[in-house]
Amino acid sequence: MSGAVVIAGAGQAGLQVAASLRAGGFAGEIVLVGEEPRLPYQRPPLSKAYLKADAGLETLLLKPEAFYEANRIETRLGTRVASIDRTNRRVALSSGDDLSYEWLVLATGARNRLPPIGGVSRPNVHALRDAGEAERLRAALVEGARLVVVGGGFIGLEVAASARARGLRVTVLEGAARLMGRVVSPVLSEFFLEAHRAMGTDVRLGASVATIEGEGEGASGDATGVRLADGTVIPADLVLMATGVVPNDEMAAEAGLATRGGVQVDAFMTTEDPAIFAIGDCAVFESPFADGPVRLESVQNAIDQAKCVAARILGGTAPYRSVPWFWSDQGSFKLQIAGITTGADHVHLSGSREAGRLVAYCFRGEKLLGIETVNRPGEHMLGRRILEGDLKVLRSDVSADDFDLKRHLAELSPAR
Ligand SMILES: Cc1cc2nc3c(=O)[nH]c(=O)nc-3n(C[C@H](O)[C@H](O)[C@H](O)COP(=O)(O)OP(=O)(O)OC[C@H]3O[C@@H](n4cnc5c(N)ncnc54)[C@H](O)[C@@H]3O)c2cc1C
């Protein structure tokens, strides 16, 4: 295989395709086109370690500059892929250049979703997706300042914990009845609610934000508070909108490719056009670990889908079927999820809330959908192995008083 591979999006997934292609012996040209002005970097620390310390952004680079030259990966940074000409297999770049491809990989990720409420564009209202936004947010995290976080999902809660560690006064506003409601079981939502309150954060559930109030004409001045639908105003020196993301799938749609809340791909991450793949946060796919089509936002998903596509370009025939897993660091708690636990109808909790070490086994009927853990990395790894290997762990097993996952797996016969 020696034709050119053009990758739109120089993030976690885009870089991984390039790296895996070279590692697999791909001899052709590889061009990595990235809208951001910097080499691919890790996003997870942006809401965690990066906010708490003073390290520079260069410490987050996924690969040093020398890697790209050594591996003959051409980078076009600060440049967008603007459109796709499928007939002639060419892409137009925002720089005015165009590139021809034999394979095109869409790894365009996602962007912040801002709700249509007044005041979101005020200068001290932040969002957090990229390094520039993290730099700006970190500079505003001044001890004693009042931070209002809108959105009680992973990113909002991670920032809340980081800001508390820096001595800010923090309020989290979540519209739903529980925290992280899209991704974890109710028992873990409850655990994290208590944990954040114990960290000193004022968490309000069922809080519907009406507008962001502030100084100046229109929305030109700084935010001074967040007004809820019930009229309450929460004073703020800065606001973080952590209200989710939307996939960057418009360019694919304009090129006539199917999208449904993300670029639609098959089990090989191929779009309807066999020369075009989509991976990572921008792709919607049928996962064997979910009921219907899913779009996942995780490093695991970005890396493993990239590896699948690189293998495919190199002639491989294996479909994508990696076990999804996720993590989130909130204060001293490491939350890890193996599998997709949404839709569980029975959750068995073991461990100790007081010690902050928990394992939640999430079942639908007799089927184990996944395992959620807090500060139990060993059980998380075992959970991934169970889901990978189709080993069965039954509801009746985990509800036994003396159940121990490690021992249980050791005893498990392959026939079960
Ligand atoms: C603050 C934060 C914390 C996170 N924490 C965790 C965590 O703890 N654990 C975890 O598993 N995941 C975490 N994630 C999610 C994880 O970072 C993403 O799932 C992962 O980065 C997805 O990789 P990607 O390559 O699909 O997209 P991205 O990394 O977003 O990269 C896409 C890139 O494409 C660029 N782009 C878009 N359109 C174009 C175009 N037309 N032409 C050229 N370039 C384009 C974008 O600017 C971007 O640089 C976090 C994300 C954020 C923002």
Please tell me about this protein's structure.
The chain is an alpha/beta fold and 416 residues long. It contains 11 helices and 26 strands. It has helices spanning 12-23, 49-52, 65-70, 131-140, 154-165, 186-198, 250-254, 299-313, 377-389, 395-398, 405-411, and strands spanning 5-8, 30-34, 73-77, 81-85, 90-93, 98-100, 103-106, 110-112, 125-126, 146-150, 169-173, 202-204, 209-214, 223-228, 233-235, 238-241, 245-247, 263-264, 276-278, 283-286, 293-294, 325-330, 333-339, 346-352, 357-364, 367-374. The protein has a 5-stranded parallel β-sheet. It has a 5-stranded parallel β-sheet with strand order 9-16-10-11-12. Strands 22-23-26-25-24 form a 5-stranded antiparallel β-sheet, with helices on both faces. Helix 1 (12-23) runs parallel beside helix 8 (299-313). The mean pLDDT is 95. The protein binds flavin-adenine dinucleotide. Residues 8-14, 33-36, 43-44, 46-47, 80-81, 107-109, 128-129, 155, 248, 251, 280-282, 297-300, 302, 326-328 line the site of flavin-adenine dinucleotide. The site of flavin-adenine dinucleotide has 36 residues, from helix 1, strand 2, helix 8 and strand 22.
